[in-house]
Amino acid sequence: MTAGITGGVGCGKSTVTGLLEARGFRRLDADAIVREQIMRDPGVVAALREHFGPGILTGDGQINRVILAEYIFGDDRERLWLEGYIHPRVYAAWRTAMAADPGARWAIEVPLLYEKALENWFDFTVCVACAPDQQLARLEQRGLPRGLAGQRISKQLPLARKIERSDFVIWNEGSPEFLEHEVDRLADALSGAWSRPTPPTT
Fold first, then answer.
1. pLDDT tens-digit readout, 25-42
2. Domain span at residue 49?
3. What is the pTM of this model?
């Protein structure tokens, strides 16, 4: 069973996916795959250096993700180029991981699930949501200036649309204990929906 976990930036996708992992789900994080695997691949580093120039690298020859973000969030053409280059590699990493454990319950964090029309990859979709002021406040707490936070939010599908299209919604504005309770309910609902017999066709 595969559950795609999406939602707005700053809404708590990683927290919810981590809580599902603690409840027996196998976890995959698209951003972590990019950060820890793909962006460290020498071939990827070389391709990004060729496209963006040597200023994209740190002193030790790795991708400077802060500078890269400035490039792509300031120019939609560059953002789309990077997504077209990186995303197929992310999908390949998913397939490899899931093929190694096909019977697992997978919770896969996908920020651009709807933007990239990936709904059919998953048995269920889950949207983690909160109010816009909460989103901005959380991003500012991470050190992102309000203007840049708003810019990043604007590059995603509106949160209301994600909520409408998802099978399940987690509203993440309460206490940590409340979120734990909500994730308990979600884990039970996902497992129950997956194990429920499919009605016969007539």
1. 999 998 889 999 999 999
2. 30-104
3. 0.85
